[in-house]
Amino acid sequence: MQFQQLAYFVAVADARHFTRAAEAVHVSQPSLSQQIRALEKELGAALFSRARGNIALTDAGEALLPLARRILADADTARHEVLELAQLRRGRVRLGATPSLATGLLPDVLRAFHDRHPGIRLIIEEGGSHDLVRHLARGALDLALVVLPLPSPSPALTTVELFQEDLVVVSSADDEPPASPVRIADLEGRPMVMFRHGYDLRDLTLAACRAAGFEPYFTVEGGEMDAVLGFVRAGLGIGVVPQTVAARAGHDLRVTPLARPGLRRTVALAHRSDVAPPRAARVLQDVLLTAATRPPNPVRPRPT
């Protein structure tokens, strides 16, 4: 008994017509009929009654049908499981992330994933949440790390909250230290280095300053994360960055917490709702969820 014979048998049972069944499984009608006859011969019983052009299941056919469906379904499941296991030895994961998350969260996460699955190629695309959502929707990414709320919420995406993270103030170690903790109002009139348009952090910082009744003063604006940190190191102004980024910024930057209630952002993992991520992407998702259960330590001011 062959899987192909069972598949042809199920097709005829569903269509109750040999020609239409042959079309459904993309074989010629004589080939399909030949395989059904071979299956009947092997089982020693007719599976279909063929009276006046009408096709009906015999008692033997009725008994075989649910078993055949189950065998084919189990074979399909086994095929997919083996394929997915193979995908963990080779393949790729396309992960989008905002630049701050690529800098602060991903290095340790990707190292843990790579140690377990060295054959998986990791393709990282940096961008703002708005751009990452668009790339997800058109199938260019498997997963994306985004900041909630999304600028354009989409029912076609599923988001899972990973963690909430404090923002902190970074300044050059050579500059006069700010008061600790820093109030949002303390930022008024103070030279600041600001990210380019489209950065979630830019929008969050601007909204907080405006809510406090002032427009921030930018000495330099338009940079990416690494550039902003470099400008701060050079003494061009202070910056407001995520805690995970500040933890990796090095000792040439001073890190100062914001006074309560401070500023926080919500980080989430997003994927398309209509398509399940590949097996390798789901494993990476588990690694990210595990990392999210270990939030960064509270920021303490570094000694001057």
TrEMBL record:
Q: Does the keyword Transcription regulation apply?
A: yes
Q: Where is the signal peptide?
A: none
Per UniProt, which keywords does this protein have? Answer: DNA-binding, Transcription, Transcription regulation
Name the Gene Ontology molecular function terms of this record.
DNA binding; DNA-binding transcription factor activity
Does this entry carry the keyword Transcription?
A: yes
Chain ranges of the HTH lysR-type domain: 1-58
InterPro entries per the UniProt record, alphabetical: LysR_HTH_N, LysR_subst-bd, WH-like_DNA-bd_sf, WH_DNA-bd_sf
State the GO CC annotations: protein-DNA complex
Q: Which PANTHER family match?
A: LYSR SUBSTRATE-BINDING, TRANSCRIPTIONAL DUAL REGULATOR HCAR-RELATED
Name the protein family.
Belongs to the LysR transcriptional regulatory family.
**What's this protein's name?**
LysR-family transcriptional regulator
To which species is this protein native? Answer: Actinacidiphila bryophytorum
